[in-house]
Write a structure and sequence with these properties.
The structure is a single chain. By secondary structure, the chain is of the alpha+beta class. The chain has two domains: about 200 residues, Lambda Exonuclease, Chain A (Alpha-Beta Complex); about 100 residues, no CATH class. The chain is built from 16 helices and ten strands. The protein has a five-stranded mixed beta sheet with strand order 4-7-8-9-10. The chain has a three-stranded antiparallel beta sheet with strand order 1-5-6, covered by helices on one side. Strand 9 and strand 10 form a beta hairpin.
Length: about 400
Amino acid sequence: MTADELINMAIAEGIDVSSQPASVPMSIDYTRSLKDYATAGEIASFLHARKKSHHIYSNTLRKNGIVVKEDMGKYLASKDYINSGALKEAIKSPLHLFYAVESGWKDRLEAYEKSKNYFVLGEFIHQAILEPRKFSRVVVEPGFKLNTKDGVKGLVSFWEDKLDQSQEEDGAPDKEKIKDIVVQGGFDLDKMDGLKQYYAALKAASGFQAIDEPNKLIVDIMYSNYRRYGDGLFFELLKHSKRETSIYYQDPIYSIPQRIRPDAMQFEENIGANTVISVKSTRAESIGHFTYQTAKLCYELSEGMYLDVASAVTGRDFRSTIMIMVQTIPPFGIAAFVWDPEDLEIGKYKYRQALQTVAECREKGLYPGYDAYAESGNFGLISMKQPEWNTKELHPVDIDN
């Protein structure tokens, strides 16, 4: 996609593109030669020649920090460690940083939101890309009614079959054990409330997720696209990768504790380069639109941070980022992108700039808002100039014609 196309797309979405013209590149010091980054061809050549993949043990990755497989809730609770989301806020303004991290306001507002207990397609697909078995673990529940005993019995029979399947494949508990648990809870399986408890317990223990028919069809389409993309690339790409592993790091320059949780990390033994793999669901209608979104959402900062922190903690040289795009709109396509070295270097630059902002704000105890963009002594009055694209000439209007 050309620079002009990106600008036109931004204008269409109402984004101000005047602050950083596409024709004026950032002036930054690269952390390494751009030639040192892995290319798509290099990784593909390695996969073609690979004889087998290797398991990498987590204890070999703990060189200068913590690498641990843990529940997402525990990772999110580690508030003392700053993440890339907070650093993206720091890039916007110190006030954004204060709101998101220091004040507690963001957490308090989010606490008022009710937890979601419904099927979210984007979240499911994100998990299924990393763990393909999940594609086959969604089912459409039969339309029996829960307000009749026969209806509940029909649902019980359906989920007993699913539990039996999971017991054979995954070692799930058998239905007799679940019956005992329900009875020990004081419920009678011959009565309606007991049957409902048994039904709910079967459903929870089965390892399957019930979804409606439209979402089931979408999942099946996505799985078909996933399997055939690049002649089965994803199965080879993710084999023996470390998925959703938490990494904690104490930055020696700014003394700011940091945390990352890449969707996956793959290693040079398996694909020829130590690589961070990110999965992004999107409503973008094309590859070009998705590329624009990666810039709009500042993905480069996250990816630059992931490479630097993963390298520092593991002692391995992470020199590649692969991003897997999944459309949640028709045709539900999937694509794999190897990030451009210059974009990653720009992300690393923004990452370091954000760390510096965080360090200065914390040291001084000051978190100015947009008044930080005003000239010194102007009491927060910011000089404003509309973007250049707004100066286009209007077409004449012939009233009499």
